[in-house]
Amino acid sequence: VGASGAIFGLFGAAWADLIQNWSLYRKQAKWVLLQLSAATVFNLMLGLIPFLDNYAHVGGFICGVVLGFTLLVQNRYDIWGYRKSRKNYQLCLQFLAITFLPVMFVTLILLLYLQIDVANECSWCSYISCVPMPPGADDLDLWWDCSPCSQVPLEVRAFDNSSYQVLCPDLSFQFVDVAEAVAAGVTFQDIAENNKLLITACKEFCPL
Fold first, then answer.
1. Hey, which end of the chain has fewer CB within 10 Å, N or C?
2. Lowest-pLDDT range, 7-16, 38-47, 71-80, 102-111?
3. pLDDT at residue 126 is higher than 90
4. Using CA atoms, how far apart are residues 187 and 197, in angstroms rounded to an integer?
5. Which among 138, 137, 149, 140 is positioned nearest to 197, based on CA atoms?
6. Rg (alpha carbons) of the chain, rounded to whole number
7. pTM of the model
8. CA distances from 46 to 123, 134, 143, 199 (A)
9. What percent of the chain has pLDDT over 70?
10. What does the DSSP 8-state code read for residue 115?
11. Lowest-pLDDT range, 23-32, 69-78, 160-169?
12. Span 66-93, mean pLDDT?
């Protein structure tokens, strides 16, 4: 776990500051918008590869935006030095952010306390943090795979003449019948020599 979630919080706060105080940026607004867009999209795209937690990135970004809408409204003054009233959209965003933030925290705490696995309820949520590349390719042609089998060290052991063992991500050993493996197109010798085939065998025979 690193500081990337907090860094994305700063990205979110910068977006909120730009939106809430657009008029104060004047001629620089469009340039700042371009810079923020490029930095945010590039870093979110990096989070789509394995071993980087985009959930932390997205969560930090959302918290940064919400807190920024609440806290980062700059005072504006007229030519006489009198403070101007805040614009309607600024007040609306502040109200929505103040309402949304505690609701979000309570919801997340309840999900944690009740041990609800959101991944089981949301089939597409895994793509927030990892997307297999290239999309639609066969397992053996992927540049990287997003299943648990590709994210932990795997192992295969010969057991006897009729079966072998595959060490699964949950650290359990699955006994695989040789005839069944041959029918699935994965023999012990092939698996032992090819990590992609080992991942395929893990996905085929391990409980995920």
1. N
2. 71-80
3. no
4. 9
5. 140
6. 25
7. 0.72
8. 21, 15, 14, 23
9. 79
10. T
11. 160-169
12. 83
Alpha helices in the chain (DSSP H): 4-20, 22-25, 29-46, 54-71, 88-113, 118-121, 178-183, 188-193, 195-205
pLDDT bucket at 165, cuts 50 / 70 / 90: confident
What's the confidence (pLDDT) of residue 86?
Answer: 80
Determine the Cα–Cα distance for residues 106 and 70; give it in Å rounded to an integer. Answer: 18
Alpha-carbon gap, residue 157 to 114, rounded angstroms: 38
Alpha-carbon distance 191 to 44, whole Å? 34
Q: What pLDDT was estimated at residue 135?
A: 76
Contacts of 98 (CB under 8 A, 6+ apart): 70
Q: Do residues 52 and 7 make contact, with C-beta atoms less than 8 angstroms apart?
A: no
DSSP 172-185: -EEEEEHHHHHHTT
Report, as residue numbers or ranges, the catalytic residues. Answer: 4, 57
- 108 Cβ contact list (under 8 Å, min separation 6): none
Over range 73-94, report the average pLDDT. 81
Type of residue numbered 190: D
**Rounded to whole angstroms, how far apart are CA atoms 195 and 155?**
9
Rounded Cα–Cα distance for residues 43 and 196 (Å): 28
48 contacts 42 by C-beta, under 8 angstroms = no
Q: What is the DSSP string of 81-105?
A: SPBPPPPHHHHHHHHHHHHHHHHHH
